[in-house]
Amino acid sequence: MSSILTVRQSVLAISLAFGASAVTPCVFAADTDSEESTPQVLPEVRLQAERESVGEQRLDKRQIEAMNGIDGNITSLLRINPSVQFDNKQQASATQGELAPADISINGAKFYDNLYQMDGMSLNNDIGPGSNNPASLTTPPSASQGFAVDTSLLCDVTVLDSNIGAEYGRFKGGVVNANTCAPARKLAGQVSVESTRSAWMKYKLSDAQRESAANSATADLQPEFEKWTYRAALQGKVTENFSLIGSFIRKTSEIPLNGYGNGLQSASDANRKVQRRGSDNAFVRGFWSISPGVLADFSLMHAPSDGDYFIANAKNSTYHLKSGGNGLNLGLTHPIALLGNATAEHRLSWNRMDSSRDADATVWKGWRYSSNKNWGVKTGTGATGWSSNEGGYGDVDQEQESAQYQGKLKWESFALLGATHTFQAGLELGTQHSSYQRNTTYEQYTASVNTSTCNMVGGVDTQYCSLATPWNAASNVRGQYLSSRVIYYAGGYELSNKTRGAFLQDDIRAGNVRLRLGARYDSDDLSPKSSIAPRLSAFWDVAGKGTTQVEVGANRYYGRNFFDFYANSKRLALQTKAQTRTLSGGLLKDWAAPEMATNWTWYQLGDMKTPYTDEKMLGVSHLWGGVKWSAKRVLREGRDEIVQHLESAAHYYWDNIGSTDSKVWTLAAETARPLRWGGSSTQVQFAYDHTRTRSSHASYDDTLSNLAGELDDYIYYQGKFVRWIDRPANNYNRPWTARLLLSTDVPAYRLKVDNFFRVRGPETGMVTTGESLMFDGGVATVFKDITVGKSISWDMRVQYALPKTGPGEGFVNLGIENLTNRTNPLYQSATALVYEKGRQFTLELGYRF
């Protein structure tokens, strides 16, 4: 009994010292109480920190289980949060074979403006987070989350969406802070395998998609897929003062597609090809209680992701994309006597992230079909109707390496002038290094022209000329030659940045009123000047009992500078001008010496400032009827947002001319204690938001043009004249969403059932009517709304634990998304309407002890 108490007390001490939100005992389900449990074992201690603000939401382990989505990533958990909006593509029926986490917007901010942390280490990727085209010639796709973290690793996830303290910086949206668990006992483990596939999902496709699905040659329309997830975890206390937790997770997806479009068959190339996606996550974390009050932790993460792709309608066109990487995280907490008693926290982290491509070929040739170029299929009409493309885009390596130190001091509270003060101060130092390397010279040959000879002065062109008669050529034509060339030379560049940050915050309590006064300083080598962000909040405990609290806040958040702004012209500088060759005197001309292109000079850095968001918020929370109620109003003005700006012909600048305005109402309710009926207990969560977001741009690599009048021109929309750049955002802008989560535990039957209901308001997009009106001496184009109906979904998750066998138990988890198989539309554009997926099943089988 005494050893059991020692274990529990040790875990509790670690939790208290690190903060309940940072370290929580990790318990597999087999460790919970049941009739078979040893009577003298105490129940596990669950620490749930009270929310400081209505701008904070914390999901514990049980809620993570309830909200776990099909792909088990962090952002899927945030569907319950009323301040979070998802990318329209996340639920699209046509692309469910993908594994990548969904992009999210918090209170109207851009998807790349959030701060993601795991155990205090940043997960953000600043290598072109807006790049999402897997077939880009120059830039492999990237993502704002550098590591794809599986939710099975996590013990809690906290979202800070408004009224965020000075401790956090370098974001304009919100903070997503995930934490792993501390081991709770001697030894525990778990293994499982999970799967879903196209045969277990009902497709919801538009008429155009339905016609193309069976013959799809593109990952934009995936008629088949099969996903598997393999998980293994082990945790335990090595000694009374040292414990370890480790896990390995492997995710795979296979997406069979046609190699060639339109249902046509190639005579000499594979007509069926498989694209693949994969991600690994090997993770080890340790906790060491060195002495009373002195605690250390470390973690190692190996989390690469990859994908195999091919270029449709082309031979030898396979390429491999790489992302993710490695991370190291060290933490130390200890008391310190500095201007009084204080607790010092140190965190040192390092990570390296990848956004790279390996291609099977480095030369692209755009032939027409002929007897010796006979793998192509008909893709058009006329002389170029049958194409036999071949080759790939070459190898590109992109890497980001970051190191960061974070130090924080928190002093014990003391009385001064009739109030209690709690001071915090912190320092952050970081370095980022980004590199881009085109490893192989890439050559692109196109524009097939008729010829009757491949002879050249001094020889014969056998590489880019063929004497086999191309399809649809005249009777006197013997062959074809490729007449246009562009070269992308091997080469690269490197960019470095050093960041500095500091904050000071005083939490002042006087009676029923609490003031949180803070300021944050940030600077870096890529910003023209440093920034100081005030973070001011006031809280009023109305009755002095903690049941009703009113809060207000006025805060500024500064964002980050991304490497893309500085790198775009450097990538283009590797490119040559397009060259053309012809026949002359019965001979084929040789290629002239390449000349470097000058379009890299079009792209310049303007007088860039650090983007920022000013926030005003008002919130109230109240405990009534056993339910925690909260409501808040958040107003945000995003200014100096960086976006590509076309000032005049061939003169592009990265300028701070972008802006975003959002107004968000939210209402949330959660049961303070479970509702009990019979032998079951049910936790209830409800959340509602009403959101209005206007933005000049969707992403930083959009172009706002002076030539097109986008900056100064007015349009007529919804009965009034508004500037073009003040139009509603075209994504992450559902007008309202209601969410309800019911989490039910039935211990006697070893059963957990979670039901998540979500109703999203009709989505509206803008299209021109073809009409115009005179306004202010100019012409205003008339726009109208195109609205698609509201979306209603019911997701269910059932977890069943088998009776114990030996030291542990087997378990079965069944997930069902869109249980009613409702057809929910998604607005894509004025001419395309697509749909969310229909009913989909996921099955997980496993064993834990």
UniProtKB/TrEMBL annotation:
Keywords: Cell outer membrane, Membrane, Receptor, Signal. InterPro entries: Beta-barrel_TonB_sf, Plug_dom_sf. The keyword Iron does not apply. Residues 1-29 form the signal peptide. Its main location: membrane. Belongs to the TonB-dependent receptor family. This is TonB-dependent receptor plug domain-containing protein. It comes from Janthinobacterium rivuli.
